[in-house]
Amino acid sequence: MEEISDWTYSTPYKGSIHFLCKHVQNIKNSTALNLQQEALVVDPTAAIKVEICDEEIPYHRLGPDNPIVHTGQIYLFECDLEDSGYTMGQCRFRVMNDSWYVLLRSYVRVDGVRVRIMDTRLFHDFSTRCILREFTLKEATFDELRSAGFNLSGEWMLSQTQADEVAPKMTLKTKVNDRVIF
Question: How many of the other CB atoms lie within 10 Å of CB of 113?
């Protein structure tokens, strides 16, 4: 996949992979979290492996029969592109009793031209030693969205959920599934 880095702040960043256990003491010192070091110990000589796979994130486990224990949303950046559109980086996460799920989204709308969404989704089942990761790139021109019946109204352009609203009408350009084994 070609690297994208331009004035719209587009980024195909899928996340950095580090062992949490190397940072347990720093986390304990700087937060009120009571982390159990034993639960996080991984053989420091073991390598983290990332392999392309066909395994999908089990979205059925993110439904109401698996209650959310903790959830949050963090905006990493937002910009109006000098009144030419909108871009934002966002991280949403949820923790259930048996797993966690993260959506890292880069969203760009260049008014009258194009919309782009780059999503990295991460899922970890606590009973496994791997994280499923899915990267997708969706893109559509304003003309393609009109042809698909999407209403490109000013109300949509001001909506806090505009990325979620337009995503189903966009064309999937790239999808990569991989597994991070630790």
Answer: 12
